[in-house]
Every structure is written in structure tokens, then in C-alpha cells.
């Protein structure tokens, strides 16, 4: 005898939950009242950071990680309007997104503008036509990270040590053309804001020397592994974002800004123009920018970074402050430059140069 | 054949046909179209020209990425065949039948681990302070650690570890299908084991080897994870360059053009492989 299935009952018991689950996935994440959806980098997924906000506001924050602006734009292009409330993005990418109408403006008095380090406020990125479209939440440096048991710390104060030959095959290089070409340009005494095509030949020469001295060109995970396992002693392009998270277990790993300075990166928190829950999204932004949120985010289990809020020092312990070189920030910020912000044409040439160097 | 029976036959293949059109032909067509467009000033513009293809072949470092892919793919395929064949032969003919399943299970055990995790594990094994260097230093063969990690050697080792298992399975299946009467007949005619293998077993199993080798080559030239993790980006393979176009610049037209080029290379390898198999059969 064939088994009989009561069709309506089966549909009711299986179909409805399945449809509900499918609709949840279709939206990419839940969009019910009491939840917000955020496109973030991995540091925001640390429960130590996200749970206090969720508990305090009785809200569910649905997080989706991405790597790189290109990936974020792809996700946004494939999403429906309203799918996302909050977006974490490179500070330099905010103006383009705001001009494309993707971002919502945020009331000036809702942001702790006076508490943000003036050097990282980056008004030119965040304030467009008199309206604020985002705020720097964290920043850090592409500079020199090293194992202080294995190298002379004095050498790390001069960027040209990276291609002098003294540390041949003991250097890993962060594999991203924009900051690294900027950093090499700084080592050659150039200003990242004034880079032109005419600077490329000199940069190319230094890059090729760097290639001769480096043992590998790696992403964040691989470079961290290489430094931690002793495969290399120096990571050129590294900084507090790489050594901070290991600082308790491996205090021999350190980072420094050389005399030529370092390249400052920043990430901004923004709200999407068609956010379905703008009030909660704004609250989330305010939590991120508060000293408590900043301290938790800056010391997340994914990577560490420098809090943009100057008042965060009170929420960090001594070990964290030491690993972040918190007390040197005023001096460091004075000697830092921003990522090269160049035309798409020059960026393409820079990327070609980087690829050519890798293939050398 | 009547129209009705013809329609019935079409009805049977229709789901597969629709599936292929929806998930292969249409996306492929879209990729071809995209490869003729261009990213200008941060926007994708429908330019309808071959500029992306011309750009690829006029930039030596991009062509080198394709050559690197082919070199690594061929090296891995050849090494994997040489390692997998004896392993498959031992499992098929030397391991008692009741243990063969266990032996095969052990052979495919590495497949159970994540591909990325396995690559990072190899990175630790091949590192200056890893097991390989520590062992060689301990027994006094080398005085200084070898720079194996973050090199082409590391990429090849990682690939070979993975693909030897795949090839072992295909060659084992081929060996098991061979009737033992071939070897017996050869022995009756006075051929020794080596001669039997060289003139009987090997030619009859070559189609399986070729299919496995082709699969290895295709999967190898299309992968960017292993070269990225184990190769240390000291040289780039074409899939890495494609990923750079997407991840760093959102330059989908350029990435599409490079993907088409890679696909044409793989197609050429397939045609060669298929022609060889056809010749063997005839």
C-alpha cells in the first residue's frame, strides 16, 4: 500500500516554514521591525562588540561581511532597495557613493564631531554640500610591523631599510597596490596627494628593489601568519591592525611609524539612503562612535585599529593602549599621509605597475 | 518517426536543456558581451570593441600570468600522474580486495578538509620553522632553512597533494575495469610483468589517465586560492589577476575578457585531449 500524505497538512507544516526561511534568505537577512542589516568588515562581527548594542536596544543586527569596496558594491548592486541599513566602507569611497545617491545624510548634531581626532575627521570625504554622509569610525596605518627580537628597531625608523638589502628575504609585503605604492612614494620623499604619472618611473625602481628583498607578497591572514611563525621578520605595509590582535600572546611583535611617516587608512560608518530602519541605524552609528563602542571595535578579535574618538582612551586598558601606541597618536597623526586618491586612469597604471613588479 | 514520438523525446531532454541554457549558455553569453564593454571613469560602458583582449595581449605581465598558469598546470598534471598511477595500481592489484575500500577511503581523506585550511596547513609545514625544514636541519642535510613556502614549489606541492587523490580514483576505476585475462594471455605468450604492463596494461588505461589528467589541468589552471596562499604572490597566475580586476577595481569587463581567454585555453586542451582519445580508439 502506498503511503498517503495529507497534502494540505503537509504543505502547511512544511511549506510555510520553508517559505518563511526562503524569504529570509531572499532578503539576505531579516528585515522585520527590531532588526537592522549591516554590510561590514570582519571586526564588526565580534560578539563582544555587537552584543552590548543588541541587548541595550533589543534589536537584532544582521551582519554580512565583505572584503574590499568592489565586493561591497557588487553586493549592493545585487540587492533590492532597503535590503541594507548600514554600510562600513573605506573613507575615500564615501564621496562617490554619496554622489551616486546610495547614502543617507546624517544630522550633524547626531554625530560626536568634536570628539573625533581632527586629522581623521576627513570632512572632504564625509561632508558633501553641507551634509554629513558618514563618519570615520576607525583608522590605522600602513607602515612597518616587525619582530623586535629579530631586527634592529632603529632600522625600522627608516623606510629605505626595506629595500636596502640588509633584511633580504626576511620581509613580507602587504599585497595591495594603492597603499604600498603610496608608502614607497613616501619613502622617496613624495607626497601621496600629489602623485602623478611622472612619479611612476622612480617608484617603479624602488618597487623592483623591494621585490628583490621581499620573500612574499601576501594578504592580511598570510602576512600575519608569516610574521607570527617567524617565516619573515618584517611586514612592510603592516601596522597596529596586524600586531595588535596578537599583542597579548606575542609581545615581541611591534609596529612603528618611520621618519618618512606612514600611510593612514580609515574606515567610515555610513547609512544607506533607502534604509528601512533609519532610526535604529543611526543609533548603531552612535554606538560605534561612542567610547565604549570604539574600544570594543578597536580591539576586536578580527583585527585591531585606532579609535577615531579621542575620548576612547578611558575605555582602553594599559595593555591595549601600549599595543596601539595610543599615547603617540598626536605625533603619528602629524606624520601620516592619506592613501593616494588618484584618477581611475592613474590607478590603472599603478595597478599595472604593481602586477608587473610581482611578475618580475 | 512520427511528430508525436519526436515530441516525447524532446520532452525528456527539455529539463536538462533548459537547465543548460539558463545556467550555462545565458551566463556565458552575458560574459562574452561583458568582455566587449569597458570600465571608464568608474562606470561600465557598452563600448562593443575588443580593447580588453588587445590590452591583455599587449601587456607582457598579463601574458606571463597566463603562461605561469599553463606551466604550473602542466607540471602539476605530469607529477600527479606519475605519483597517482603507481598508487592506484597498488590499490587495485596489490591490496587485498577486502581492504581496497579502506585504502581508497584513506586516499581521499584529504578531500574532507577545507581547501583553504589545507593550503594554510601546507604553508605551516613548508615554512622555515616548519616540519620539513626542521627535519632536514635535524638530520644535517641542510645548514640553513630552505625557502620552500611562498614559492612556485609550494604551489605545486599543494596542488599535487590534492590532485594525486583525484587521479588515483580515476585511474583505479580504469584499472579495475580491465579484465585480468589480458595479463594472463600476455603471460601465456611469454611476456614478463614489465612487458605486460608497458604493452598491455598502460595503453589500455591511458584513456582514464588522460581524462584524469585533463580534469587535473582544468582545475589547476582555474584555481587562485592555492597560488595565492602557498605561492606568496611572488608570481601571479591568471585567475589571481582576474580576481584582482573584480576585487580591487570592480572591472568586470576586463575580468570577463580574461576569463574568456582562460576558457579558450582550456577548450583547446580539451580538443587536443578528445582528438587524442579518438585516435587511440580508432
Walkthrough of the structure:
The complex is a heterodimer of chains A (360) and B (282). Chain A has 360 residues and is of the alpha/beta class. Chain A contains 15 helices and 13 strands. Chain A has helices at residues 7-26, 47-57, 69-78, 94-99, 118-121, 123-126, 177-187, 200-213, 220-229, 240-243, 278-289, 291-298, 318-324, 329-334, 344-358, and strands at residues 35-40, 60-65, 86-90, 127-128, 131-132, 135-147, 171-174, 214-218, 234-238, 253-256, 262-271, 306-307, 336-338. In chain A, strands 1, 2, 3, 6, 7, 8, 9, 10, 11, 12 and 13 form an 11-stranded mixed sheet that branches. In chain A, strands 4-5 form a two-stranded antiparallel ribbon. In chain A, helix 8 packs parallel to helix 15. With 282 residues, chain B is mainly alpha-helical. Chain B has a single domain (59-281), classed as MetI-like fold, CATH 1.10.3720.10. Helix content of chain B is 78%, strand content 2%. Chain B has 12 helices and 2 strands. Chain B has helices at residues 3-35, 51-58, 60-94, 97-107, 115-126, 131-138, 152-177, 181-188, 193-221, 225-231, 238-249, 252-281, and strands at residues 38-40, 43-45. Chain B has a two-stranded antiparallel sheet with strand order 1-2. The radius of gyration of chain B is 24 Å and the shape is globular. Chain B starts with a helix and ends with a helix. The mean pLDDT of chain B is 91. The interface between A and B is medium-sized, with 34 and 35 residues.
Mind sketching the topology for me?
The complex is a heterodimer of chains A (360) and B (282).
Chain A: H1 7-26, E1 35-40, H2 47-57, E2 60-65, H3 69-78, E3 86-90, H4 94-99, H5 118-121, H6 123-126, E4 127-128, E5 131-132, E6 135-147, E7 171-174, H7 177-187, H8 200-213, E8 214-218, H9 220-229, E9 234-238, H10 240-243, E10 253-256, E11 262-271, H11 278-289, H12 291-298, E12 306-307, H13 318-324, H14 329-334, E13 336-338, H15 344-358
Helix pairs in contact in A: 8-15
Chain B: H1 3-35, E1 38-40, E2 43-45, H2 51-58, H3 60-94, H4 97-107, H5 115-126, H6 131-138, H7 152-177, H8 181-188, H9 193-221, H10 225-231, H11 238-249, H12 252-281
Antiparallel strand pairs in B: 1-2
Helix pairs in contact in B: 1-12, 3-7, 3-9, 3-11, 5-10, 7-9, 7-10, 8-9, 9-12, 11-12
Amino acid at each position: 500500500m502506498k503511503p498517503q500524505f495529507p497534502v494540505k497538512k503537509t504543505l502547511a507544516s512544511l511549506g510555510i516554514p520553508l517559505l518563511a526561511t526562503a524569504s529570509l534568505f531572499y532578503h539576505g537577512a531579516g528585515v522585520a521591525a527590531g532588526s537592522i542589516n549591516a554590510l561590514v568588515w570582519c571586526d564588526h562581527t565580534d560578539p563582544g562588540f555587537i552584543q552590548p548594542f543588541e541587548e541595550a536596544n533589543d534589536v537584532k543586527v544582521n551582519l554580512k561581511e565583505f572584503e574590499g569596496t568592489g565586493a561591497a558594491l557588487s553586493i549592493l548592486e545585487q540587492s533590492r532597495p532597503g535590503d541594507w541599513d548600514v554600510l562600513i566602507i573605506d573613507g575615500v569611497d564615501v564621496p562617490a557613493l554619496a554622489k551616486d545617491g546610495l547614502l543617507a545624510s546624517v544630522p550633524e548634531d547626531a554625530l560626536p564631531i568634536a570628539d573625533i581626532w581632527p586629522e581623521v575627521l576627513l570632512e572632504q570625504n564625509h561632508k558633501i554640500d553641507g551634509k554629513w554622509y558618514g563618519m570615520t569610525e576607525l583608522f590605522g596605518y600602513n607602515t612597518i610591523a616587525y619582530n623586535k627580537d629579530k631586527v634592529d628597531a632603529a632600522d625600522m625608523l627608516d623606510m629605505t631599510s626595506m629595500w636596502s638589502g640588509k633584511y633580504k628575504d626576511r620581509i613580507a609585503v602587504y599585497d595591495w597596490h594603492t597603499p604600498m605604492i603610496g608608502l614607497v612614494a613616501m619613502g622617496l620623499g613624495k607626497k601621496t596627494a600629489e602623485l602623478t604619472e611622472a612619479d611612476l618611473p622612480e617608484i617603479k625602481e624602488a618597487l623592483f628593489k623591494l621585490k628583490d628583498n621581499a620573500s612574499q607578497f601576501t594578504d592580511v591572514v598570510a602576512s600575519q601568519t608569516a610574521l607570527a611563525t617567524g617565516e619573515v621578520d618584517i611586514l612592510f605595509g603592516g601596522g597596529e591592525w596586524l600586531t595588535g590582535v596578537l599583542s597579548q600572546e606575542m609581545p615581541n611583535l611591534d609596529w612603528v611609524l618611520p621618519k618618512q611617516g606612514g600611510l593612514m587608512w580609515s574606515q567610515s560608518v555610513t547609512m544607506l539612503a533607502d534604509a528601512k530602519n533609519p532610526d535604529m541605524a543611526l543609533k548603531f552609528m552612535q554606538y560605534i562612535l561612542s567610547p565604549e563602542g570604539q574600544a570594543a571595535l578597536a580591539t576586536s578579535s578580527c583585527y585591531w585599529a585606532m579609535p577615531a574618538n579621542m575620548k576612547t582612551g578611558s575605555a582602553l586598558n594599559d595593555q591595549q593602549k601600549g599595543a596601539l601606541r595610543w599615547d603617540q597618536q598626536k605625533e603619528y597623526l602629524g606624520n601620516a599621509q592619506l592613501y593616494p586618491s588618484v584618477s581611475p586612469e592613474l590607478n590603472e597604471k599603478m595597478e599595472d605597475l604593481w602586477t608587473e613588479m610581482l611578475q618580475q | 518517426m512520427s511528430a508525436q514520438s519526436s515530441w516525447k523525446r524532446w520532452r525528456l531532454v527539455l529539463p536538462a536543456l533548459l537547465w543548460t541554457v539558463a545556467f550555462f549558455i545565458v551566463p556565458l553569453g552575458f560574459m562574452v558581451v561583458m568582455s566587449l564593454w569597458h570600465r571608464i571613469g568608474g562606470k561600465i560602458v557598452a563600448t562593443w570593441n575588443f580593447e580588453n583582449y588587445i590590452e591583455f595581449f599587449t601587456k607582457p605581465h598579463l601574458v606571463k600570468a597566463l603562461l605561469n598558469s599553463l606551466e604550473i598546470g602542466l607540471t602539476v598534471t605530469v607529477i600527479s600522474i606519475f605519483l597517482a598511477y603507481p598508487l592506484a595500481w597498488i590499490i587495485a592489484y596489490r591490496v587485498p580486495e577486502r581492504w581496497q575500500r579502506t585504502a581508497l577511503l584513506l586516499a581521499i581523506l584529504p578531500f574532507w578538509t577545507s581547501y583553504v585550511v589545507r593550503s594554510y596547513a601546507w604553508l605551516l609545514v613548508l615554512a622555515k620553522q616548519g616540519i620539513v625544514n626542521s627535519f632536514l636541519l635535524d638530520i644535517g642535510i641542510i645548514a640553513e632553512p630552505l625557502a620552500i613556502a611562498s614559492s612556485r614549489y609550494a604551489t605545486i606541492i599543494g596542488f599535487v597533494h590534492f590532485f594525486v587523490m583525484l587521479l588515483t580514483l580515476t585511474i583505479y576505476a580504469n584499472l579495475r575495469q580491465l579484465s585480468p585475462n589480458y595479463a594472463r594471455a600476455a603471460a601465456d605468450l611469454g611476456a614478463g610483468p614489465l612487458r605486460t604492463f608497458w604493452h598491455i596494461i598502460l595503453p589500455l588505461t591511458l584513456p582514464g589517465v588522460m581524462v584524469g589528467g585533463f580534469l587535473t589541468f582544468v582545475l589547476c589552471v582555474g584555481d587562485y586560492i592555492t597560488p595565492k596562499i602557498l605561492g606568496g604572490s611572488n608570481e601571479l597566475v591568471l585567475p589571481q589577476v582576474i580576481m584582482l580586476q573584480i576585487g580591487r577595481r570592480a572591472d568586470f569587463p576586463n575580468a570577463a575578457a580574461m576569463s574568456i581567454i582562460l576558457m579558450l585555453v582550456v577548450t583547446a586542451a580539451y580538443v587536443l585531449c578528445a582528438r587524442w582519445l579518438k585516435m587511440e580508439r580508432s
